[in-house]
Design brief:
The chain is mainly beta. It has 2 domains: 203 residues, no CATH class; 166 residues, no CATH class. The protein is built from 2 helices and 27 strands. Strands 13, 14, 15, 16, 17 and 18 form a 6-stranded antiparallel β-sheet that branches. A 4-stranded antiparallel β-sheet has the order 19-20-26-27. Strands 1-2-6 form a 3-stranded antiparallel β-sheet, with no helix packed on it. It is elongated and about 100 Å long. The mean pLDDT is 94. This is Insecticidal crystal toxin domain-containing protein. Pfam families: Vps62 (PF06101). InterPro entries: Vps62.
Length: 401
């Protein structure tokens, strides 16, 4: 059964945890252990990886790690999102290494208008077939960086050539975010030295997610004497936005909980807002009553940390809403307009003083926000937080006679 897919504009996306072992350095006496795997394609090779996967050990990664597969959205017109490479450039072979098996590293040559996002490892020394990977349309790629430390290098392997292998990672985004959300592809680039790759463009896929944010324009509820609301009651709950992304946007590719449900490898985050009853005061006497109510608003450090730990999302007044992995901003999707100010998340206390007239009831309303992270199919809630949106409180009253 193929894994579920999701459309991101012209790009079709899923994840896989199934691989073929292409080569490892057993027997080479290299300082590092390394093995190289190629993700299995899906749907008769319509969904392919963007390169091979490198790990710094000999462990079998089948069912232990997820990697991105991409393809062209069949419902899109125009230039396809992906194209096969037109050939390969040889980067390295293990000639002279003494490794138990022969292996070679190759770089896909992208056709015009497309980019290669990772190297390909081949059993033996023959050129890989061009249907092994996809190249990505250039406008669907985002700038990336190499890992701080190499995944593997062949030092002391005895190979005729030097090589080091570096993971490709998203380089983050501006705090305002954009329609393009970078995502790790699980690929690597090789270098013909023990230093990081030089004079080469590093890129990762960028998933296109539009802004569908809905403003909350509902007026403050008006109460009647026949029904007085209770504290904590919710009025006019409205979902403002929702995004769906592969779980590797939120969690490491090795996350066990997510891997166990890889048949539908997506997670969703949504934000809802409503009028919330902060306090209710009834005065059934013949005189006025003076009252005050202190209301806390914003997101506390403890609540933010809980969301980060359980759902991989960071929420703060400084950065707004972002994916904790690689600092990818979601503010474009979670704001009505492009902004770098997120005062609704700022912790604050407001004391509202008011007078309850004789024989009347007064209700204090505030805008309340809920943020929910769950499996995209709704099967499990990973984390949910709620908080008062800001210090904007409103009073609604009714005569009880």
């Amino acid at each position: 059964m193929p894994n579920q897919t999701h459309d991101y504009g012209d790009l079709l996306v899923t994840l896989t945890s199934e691989y073929d072992l292409m080569w490892n350095d057993r027997g080479s006496n290299a300082d590092d252990d390394g093995s190289f795997w190629h993700p299995k394609t899906q749907d008769e090779k319509k969904l392919r990886p963007l390169g091979s996967v490198a790990v710094g050990n000999y462990d079998d990664i089948n069912k232990q790690q997820a990697t991105l597969l991409v393809g062209a959205n069949p419902n899109s017109g125009g230039t396809p999102a992906v194209a096969s490479p037109v050939g390969y450039t040889l980067m390295w072979t293990d000639h002279g290494s003494g490794a138990d098996n022969d292996g070679s590293f190759w770089r896909p040559n992208a056709p015009s208008g497309y980019v290669s996002l990772g190297d390909v490892v081949q059993k033996g020394y023959d050129t890989p077939p061009v249907d092994r990977v996809w190249c990505l349309r250039a406008d669907l790629a985002a700038d990336a960086r190499h890992s701080d430390y190499h995944v593997w290098y062949d030092r002391h392997s005895g190979a005729n050539q030097d090589v080091s292998v570096w993971a490709i990672e998203p380089s983050g985004t501006a705090v305002t975010g954009s329609e393009s959300i970078p995502i790790i592809a699980g690929t690597f680039l090789s270098s013909k030295t023990y230093s990081p790759p030089a004079n080469v463009v590093l890129a990762v896929p960028a998933l296109q997610v539009k802004n569908n944010y809905q403003k909350f324009n509902t007026p403050v509820p008006q109460i009647g004497k026949d029904y007085i609301p209770y504290e904590g009651e919710v009025y006019n709950l409205q979902e403002q936005c929702r995004i769906t992304l592969p779980f590797i946007s939120f969690f490491p590719p090795t996350d066990r909980r997510a891997l166990d449900k890889i048949s539908d490898p997506f997670c969703a985050v949504n934000r809802s807002i409503a009028w919330y009853v902060e306090a209710v005061y009834e005065n059934r006497t013949g005189g006025t009553i003076d009252r005050s109510e202190t209301v806390k608003s914003g997101v506390s450090k403890e609540v933010s940390e809980e969301m980060t730990q359980k759902a991989g999302i960071q929420i703060s007044a400084k950065y707004g809403t972002k994916l904790s992995n690689y600092g990818i901003s979601l503010n474009y999707q979670f704001s009505y307009s492009k902004t770098s100010k997120f005062t609704e998340f700022q912790e604050h206390e407001l004391t509202e003083k008011f007078t309850v007239p004789e024989y009347s009831a007064t209700v204090l309303f505030g805008q309340h926000i809920w943020m929910n992270a769950s499996r995209a199919d709704g099967s499990a809630v990973m984390a949910q937080i709620d908080f008062n949106a800001n210090s904007d409180m409103h009073l609604s009253g009714v005569n009880l006679t």
